[in-house]
Automatic annotation (TrEMBL):
It comes from Ursus americanus. The keyword Glycoprotein applies. Gene3D superfamilies: Immunoglobulins (2.60.40.10), MHC class I-like antigen recognition-like (3.30.500.10). Residues 185-285 form the Ig-like domain. It is found in: Cell membrane; Endosome membrane. Residues 1-18 form the signal peptide. GO terms for molecular function: endogenous lipid antigen binding; exogenous lipid antigen binding; lipopeptide binding. This is Ig-like domain-containing protein. InterPro entries: Ig-like_dom, Ig-like_dom_sf, Ig-like_fold, Ig_C1-set, MHC_class-I_related, MHC_I-like_Ag-recog, MHC_I-like_Ag-recog_sf, MHC_I/II-like_Ag-recog.
């Protein structure tokens, strides 16, 4: 595992760059969700995610993977991928009957969901950590450690009973151990290597200002929109000169279909104090030069009316005078 960790960092650092070139932590998660509707009806759904980016889907009927990115196969051969498809298909057909057969003993109530999650996490300065966990109704139930199943602290007696049963399958657990400590890390490594150009790309954000619903009489809700940026890490601040303003409201960073991100940051201010405020955007794609947008008070409707009507009246008068002269 130490050798794998060293190789992984070599892969992640392009052209002798620093660790900052690749934003850590980063993780891969493979999720199999089994929905148990009744004793004879179970539905399975599978997917794989590199952080918030979905890289794979899964057809529960055929057992085939769906590759959602051009680099989703990583460095695995077609033969290895077929073996993994076969392994997942066998597991998805053999796993639900275990829960069906122990509904009463484990005090399960239809309908319910069981999630099987396996993955790896890479943190700066730490060894690569891979895991396998099972959750019931979204709550941790059991996890696999050192060839054995361990109950989650919140799993109660149900988790202890499941561990007692699962730990009887020594041969299966040995296969699982190899998968978690060898196959899964190699796949994670290959996926990062194959998708390196995509994951290390820099996409400049677009930004604009607007107002939101009025917070009250004499107040403004200023909104700074930042869109289309990658990677995800971004700094957006409302400023007065060089002083950051307190009371900003930061929304969730939301994904676009193209893999870039969107964020809005709001500030509730007294309307007469809005002039002079600015929104500052910091992002790695900007090359160290912050993007700054200054808030300007909107012109009154009277000024807009004069700016439009006066030239029209003057032009009409000029046309009338030329017509008379002609």
């Amino acid at each position: 595992m130490l050798f794998l960790q060293l190789v992984l960092f070599v892969v992640l650092l392009p052209d002798g760059g620093s660790e900052d070139d690749f934003q850590l932590p980063i993780s891969i998660r493979m999720i199999l969700t089994s929905s148990f509707y009744n004793h004879s009806w179970t539905q399975n759904q599978g997917s794989a995610w590199l952080d918030e980016l979905q890289t794979h889907g899964w057809d529960s009927k055929t057992g085939a993977f769906t590759y959602l990115q051009p680099w989703s196969k990583g460095n695995f051969s077609n033969k290895e991928l077929k073996e993994q498809e076969r392994s997942l298909h066998i597991f998805s057909t053999g796993f639900p009957p275990i829960f069906h057969n122990h509904v009463r003993q484990w005090q399960l109530e239809y309908p319910f969901q069981v999630q099987v999650v396996k993955g790896c996490e890479l943190h700066f300065g730490k060894a690569l950590e891979c895991y396998l966990r099972i959750a019931y109704q979204g709550s941790d139930l059991v996890n696999f450690q050192n060839m054995t199943w361990q109950p989650s602290p919140k799993g109660g007696s149900r988790a202890q009973q499941i561990c007692k049963l699962f730990n009887q399958y020594y041969v299966v657990n040995k296969i699982v151990h190899v998968h978690i400590n060898d196959i899964l890390p190699r796949f994670f490594l290959g996926l990062l290597d194959a998708g390196k150009a995509y994951l290390l790309r820099q996409v400049r954000p677009e930004a604009w200002l607007s107002t939101g619903p009025s917070p009250g009489p004499g107040r403004l809700l200023l909104v700074c929109h930042v869109s289309g940026f990658y990677p995800k890490s971004v700094g957006v601040m409302w400023m007065w000169g060089e002083q950051e303003q307190w009371g900003t409201q930061r929304g969730d960073i939301l994904p676009h279909a193209d893999g870039t991100w969107y964020l809005r940051v709001m500030l509730d201010v007294v309307a007469r104090e809005a002039a002079g405020l600015s929104c500052r955007v910091r992002h790695s794609s900007l090359g160290g030069q912050d993007m700054v947008l200054y808030w300007e008070q909107p012109h009154s409707m009277g000024l807009v009316f004069l700016a439009v009507i006066v030239p029209v009246v003057l032009l009409a008068g000029l046309v009338l005078w030329l017509w008379k002269c002609w």
